[in-house]
Amino acid sequence: MTPSSASAPSLVIPNLAEPSSDLLQLAQDPAPYPAFLRLSKTGSMKERNRYVNVDPYQNNRVRLKVPEGLNDYINASPVVLHSTKSDKVLKYIATQGPRFDTYSHFWRMVWHETTSPAVVVMLTQTHEASREKCYPYYPEKLETPIMPLNARDEYEDGFIHELKLTNLENHEDVRAEVRELDMTNEDGSESRKVWHLLFAGWPDFLVPQGDDREALLRLITMSREKNLDNATNPRIVHCSAGVGRSGTFIALDWLLQELDDGSLDEVQDDEDPIFHVVSAMREQRMMMVQSEAQFIFIYELLKERWRDRWISQHPEEAENLGVGRRLSEGQEGPRLKRQKSQKQHDGDEEEKAESEAELFDAEIDIDKENA
């Protein structure tokens, strides 16, 4: 990739300057998912969903490790993304925000599907706009550090654990509450460390703004560093439905690795790496990257990072062009007042209302089915 012109003060990445029309169409009117991939849900499965219109594919879902013949359903999907230039692999589990009646299933999944230390990235608040988006499935305060898990032994298989909050720190530069948890079985013979990263800068259907954009990038870096092997130990990522913010986070994590590997240095005119990764994710979980604003956010952020990387690699040419590098992570400089993420892009209000209405209707539908 090269700057668009020698005289241009701002660099434009070919194919990353703006979303393709195909991708925006994908955001606004997702292609129908093949019927054979959709899960034929029984009543007991439907009861575990937060939204009636969001569920994992039949052939790509996490199955709870429970006694044979019992309900192994959890609304969670393994997501595997491969580097285009190296042999690197990134593994994730995208899932919905746990409900009161499913949070023990969530921790059962953590215990069986990850190794210590596990990393959980939470991209939603427990309540937004006076509605529950996620049950508080973790100890919130050091004053009350213990949370029993599955005390009634739901599956009668002895999976009774305890969750203990051992440390809680607020990282202002990451806009996150970072919890260090110990998950221990009933007799204390086995224990796992879990890092729980709760990001506070991302309202549903919108995108981080101002300082929250840089904070999100630091969160991505932190989630990688806390996990010892991102190729074998999947990071668990969730928002409320487990598709919009979760898909955006995962796409950015993979694209930033591609950028660091040099895979985006020479993208052909007919290639769109963002379209590629979103399509790959949607083959593994429906609706990944949910709104047009989230698509545009990925393009904008990746463009900024590509620009910074090019300038760092070509300092003399950048100086001749009069192109300055944005402050990198950790550098001091004039601190901008944080623009609250509640502030929306022009045109986002209608899209946000439509998305909220769709999920609100889904909540109503599932409540009716469970009544």
From TrEMBL:
<comment type="similarity">
    <text>Belongs to the protein-tyrosine phosphatase family. Non-receptor class subfamily.</text>
</comment>
<dbReference type="InterPro" id="IPR029021">
    <property type="entry name" value="Prot-tyrosine_phosphatase-like"/>
</dbReference>
<dbReference type="InterPro" id="IPR050348">
    <property type="entry name" value="Protein-Tyr_Phosphatase"/>
</dbReference>
<dbReference type="GO" id="GO:0004725">
    <property type="term" value="F:protein tyrosine phosphatase activity"/>
</dbReference>
<feature type="compositionally biased region" description="Basic and acidic residues">
    <location>
        <begin position="326"/>
        <end position="335"/>
    </location>
</feature>
<feature type="region of interest" description="Disordered">
    <location>
        <begin position="321"/>
        <end position="371"/>
    </location>
</feature>
<protein>
    <submittedName>
        <fullName>Uncharacterized protein</fullName>
    </submittedName>
</protein>
<feature type="domain" description="Tyrosine specific protein phosphatases">
    <location>
        <begin position="214"/>
        <end position="296"/>
    </location>
</feature>
<dbReference type="InterPro" id="IPR016130">
    <property type="entry name" value="Tyr_Pase_AS"/>
</dbReference>
<dbReference type="InterPro" id="IPR000242">
    <property type="entry name" value="PTP_cat"/>
</dbReference>
<dbReference type="InterPro" id="IPR000387">
    <property type="entry name" value="Tyr_Pase_dom"/>
</dbReference>
<feature type="domain" description="Tyrosine-protein phosphatase">
    <location>
        <begin position="46"/>
        <end position="305"/>
    </location>
</feature>
<dbReference type="Pfam" id="PF00102">
    <property type="entry name" value="Y_phosphatase"/>
</dbReference>
<dbReference type="InterPro" id="IPR003595">
    <property type="entry name" value="Tyr_Pase_cat"/>
</dbReference>
<feature type="compositionally biased region" description="Acidic residues">
    <location>
        <begin position="347"/>
        <end position="364"/>
    </location>
</feature>
